[in-house]
Design goal:
This protein has a domain of 63 residues. It is 3% helix and 11% strand. It is built from two helices and eight strands, in the order E-E-E-E-H-E-E-H-E-E. The strands form four sheets. A two-stranded antiparallel sheet has the order 1-4. It is elongated, with a radius of gyration of 35 Å.
Length: 359
């Protein structure tokens, strides 16, 4: 110990019948020092701040270094050693950050944990072969296999899920805030109900709401052939044991439901707000096949209507036959020039005759 300034380093309190340790001024230790508390004792630092506008921190630990240290260094560390059979009937944590808010309207920002990285003018990361971030989470030890199986990334407790809440209805998202150039943006962390893929089940969907939405500004589209702004691709590497379907969409009409207006599995379209289309080619869908071998059957669509009530009234419902289908009224006056296989049922193909003119 190189220097110690104190008004009363050791005193005796006859009421408590114990020593009272009081340190005022500078307490400086040269080398290493240790405070050891035994027999369920605690070290408590209680500070009352009573001056408005005060800033600072009751306890500050600063590690100054201007050299390359070893494989670890911490300014502060919280450690719980459970030995061979230690534990708790409740929660054990290495470090606890907690705030008791005022019994009134809050002022300022309240967060139980704060992490900040300060970059100097010439601070860089990549050239050092290093990395930086706000959180580093790790697990180690010989018994890590159990944690690998049953561990959790985090636990969130005390929230009530509902529309507009921090925890959304059905617990699919957690509300967060991103601040960019002083502007606060509400963002939401998405959580899946299934392992290894994004899966949700919604018990509550508002009448005009959506459960999935993608929107954006697309200034200069330039997709490669066969790709789109939403791209789904899967590589089949073995023999299929059943159907191999890339996408499925079902609208399940459960008992008690009622459909009183139009209902569509897909509703797609073009909207022209004043674009230049004179050199464009528009199509509602594109289907392509590049097969190296000949399959047993090959169709543009596979229609499967089950039950007498599932019969269709027509292939298309159109608001304007001429605009929607290029319809021209007339009766066949020419000799047919060919056919198109229109549908197949039970292995029997039916054809549409083609004519060289609309009449």
């Amino acid at each position: 110990m190189t220097e110690m300034l104190r008004a009363n380093f050791r005193g005796y309190d006859p009421t408590l019948a114990e020593d009272v340790w009081t340190i005022r001024g500078l307490f400086q230790v040269d080398g290493s020092g240790k405070i050891e508390i035994t027999e369920q004792g605690t070290l408590s630092i209680d500070v009352d701040w009573e001056t408005a506008g005060e800033t600072g921190r009751p306890l500050s630990v600063i590690l100054d270094t201007d050299v390359l240290l070893g494989n670890y260094a911490n300014a502060i560390k919280g450690y719980v050693d459970c030995g061979d059979s230690g534990g708790s009937t409740g929660l054990l944590s290495g470090i606890n950050g907690e705030i008791r808010l005022p019994n009134a309207a809050g002022r300022g920002a309240y967060y139980s944990l704060e992490g900040e990285i300060v970059f100097q003018a010439s601070s860089t990361i990549t050239p050092w072969g290093s990395s930086a971030g706000w959180l580093y989470l790790g697990a180690s030890g010989d018994g890590i296999a159990d944690f690998d199986t049953d561990g959790r990334f985090m636990a969130v407790v005390g929230l009530t899920p509902a529309i507009g809440k921090l925890l959304s209805a059905d617990m699919h998202t957690l509300k967060s805030t991103m601040v960019v150039s002083g502007v606060n943006y509400a963002k939401y962390l998405v959580m899946s109900i299934a392992e290894n893929y994004l899966s949700h089940y919604f018990l509550v969907i508002a009448a005009d709401d959506r459960i999935f939405k993608l929107a954006g500004l697309w200034a200069t589209p330039d997709n490669p052939d066969g790709e789109g702004i939403v791209n789904i691709s899967a590589n089949i590497t073995g023999a299929s044991a059943g159907e191999a379907n890339l996408q499925s969409a079902w609208l399940n009409l459960v008992s008690g439901s009622e459909i009183t207006e139009w209902s569509h599995i897909h509703t797609d379209g073009f909207y022209d707000g004043g674009a230049t289309l004179t050199g464009g080619h528009l199509a509602w869908a594109k289907y392509a096949a590049q097969l190296a071998s000949d399959p047993q059957e090959h169709f543009i669509m596979d229609l499967n209507m089950v039950g007498a009530n599932s019969g269709i009234d027509a292939i298309y419902n159109v608001n304007n036959p001429a605009l929607a289908l290029g319809y021209v009224a007339g009766t066949p006056g020419d000799t047919e020039v060919g056919t198109i296989p229109f549908f197949s049922t039970g292995g029997v193909v039916k054809y549409i005759y083609l004519y060289p003119s609309p009449s």
